[in-house]
Amino acid sequence: MIRKGLVAVQRKRNTKKGFTLVELIVVIVIILVLAAAVVPWIMRHITNAKKVPCQSNRRALIYDLVDALAMDEAHTVRDLQQMADDSEIKCPEGGTYTVMCTGDPLENTDTLQIVCDKHKDSISGDGGSTPANPNAASLGLWGDFQKFAEQSSQKKNSALREAFLKEYGGQWPTLTVDGETYYIQPFYSESADSSLPMEQRTWLYATKDSGTASNWSVPYVFDPVTQEWYGATKWNGSAGGSANILSKDADTLHDTIANSTHNGTDRPTWKKVEKFQEDVPGK
User: Fold this and answer.
1) Would you say 143 and 156 are in contact if contact means Cβ atoms under 8 Å apart?
2) Which of 2, 125, 193, 275 is buried most deeply by CB count within 10 Å?
3) Angle of helix 77-86 relative to helix 21-70, nearest 10 degrees?
């Protein structure tokens, strides 16, 4: 009798329902889905929280640079970059500040920007925050070269470039495309109408040569109208070519980039570079 009772109790215990394997899997999947949705949101807010002190520092720094322009203590992007390098205002997380300008800061300080390579955004002269301009180095170089050429009595391309490089610290900014590094250099058109504004008579190109000798056939050129990089193509249309940049002025260079094709084909000589990185020397 006692034995039968024990068997009955054992059977009763065995009839208690637990979690099935399917139910456990469903619960785990739900947890993983929630984690996948919540964790990125949390990380994004942590990242943004770390960015705020850096943005505040750059706002303070850019106001100092604007004051320097107003006090005639700086005239070029290079001058402003030197002031930023010497300033005690830094990124709290060790990022490097790069000064750039999409126009003439003397005429419009809103075109002045400071980019942090750690946080990948820029603070403009009006205090606003925007995504970092990938052409920061080239625009800074181009703007400084225009002013240098305007003020120089020398109007020969090679002589201008050589003198400018010394003023610029002896190193060109770099353009990296597909893991290959090229030197961004300015070009002055001696054949352009001297009555044109300097931005119409100058442009940029990038080449493997880091010297100051003029290069007529180059792998990359900066369209002065669209302000975008274009790479020369090979005859079959693939990347990695080299093409002539001789043009009378910025407009004709733009037309050449937009419309030129390889002889006897409809394949364009130049193609827009979608992925690239620019770097300032010493940064």
Assistant:
1) no
2) 125
3) 110
pLDDT in tens, 101-145: 766 666 666 677 888 877 777 777 666 666 666 777 787 788 888
Helix (H, G, I), strand (E, B) or coil at 117: coil
Give the whole-angstrom CA distance, residue 61 versus residue 112: 11
Handedness of CA 119, 122, 123, 129 (dihedral sign): negative
Domains in the chain: ranges and CATH: 39-131 (3.30.1300), 157-279 (3.30.1690.20)
- Check if the beta carbon of residue 102 is closer than 8 Å to that of residue 139: yes
pTM, whole model, 2 decimals?
0.63
Strand order in the sheet with 97-101: 97-101, 112-116, 121-124, 129-131
Residues, the chain, total? Answer: 283
Joined tokens for residue 199: 């931005």
Question: CA torsion angle for 208, 211, 213, 215 (degrees, to 10)?
Answer: 10
Measured CA to CA, the distance from residue 147 to residue 127 in angstroms comes to: 26
Buried b (16+ CB within 10 A) or exposed e, 206-228: bbeeeebeebeebbbbbbbeeeb
DSSP 73-112: S--SHHHHHHHHHHSS---TT---EEEEESS-TTT-GGGE
- Check: CB of residue 100 under 8 Å from CB of residue 125: no
- 148 neighbors 165 (Cβ within 8 angstroms): no
